[in-house]
Protein: Membrane-associated proteins in eicosanoid and glutathione metabolism
Amino acid sequence: MASTFPQGFGYVGAALVSTAWLIIGQSFTVSAARKNAKIDYPQMYASTAQQKESKEALIFNCAQRAHQNTLENLPIVWISTIVSGLQYPVLSASACALWVVSRIFYTRGYITGDPKKRVGPVYMVGTFSLLGSFLAASYVSGTWVYQNITA
Structure:
């Protein structure tokens, strides 16, 4: 059984690779914040007392949370991007790329030490792009199921 990918599916691959670069960048940000806050491994977050003592501890917690939240969302991003990309590769890759850019802004806002700055207009664009990708993936997979049931 031969498989073919639609023209433009390479963009989907490039968009997915950009998510790996995002995670690598966030990892470096967390590592630098950990070092500045003097939080030793294996402690995952600075304690409340450490946060009260130093702004660096709060920034570390914010960087760690931004990274963790991104990791929590990645399975949805990857699945939605791949499935929707099988029928709509340019739309899918664009939605994933917008999500990645929004996550950069999300992280930059979060690591100010004011968690409210993590959400802004660019973040919302990324959220809606992910929703669009998820809806497109749902449509594509629903279409496949319907075609196989009625065949």
Q: What stands out?
A: The radius of gyration is 19 Å. The mean pLDDT is 94. The helical segments are 9-37, 48-53, 55-85, 89-110, 121-150.
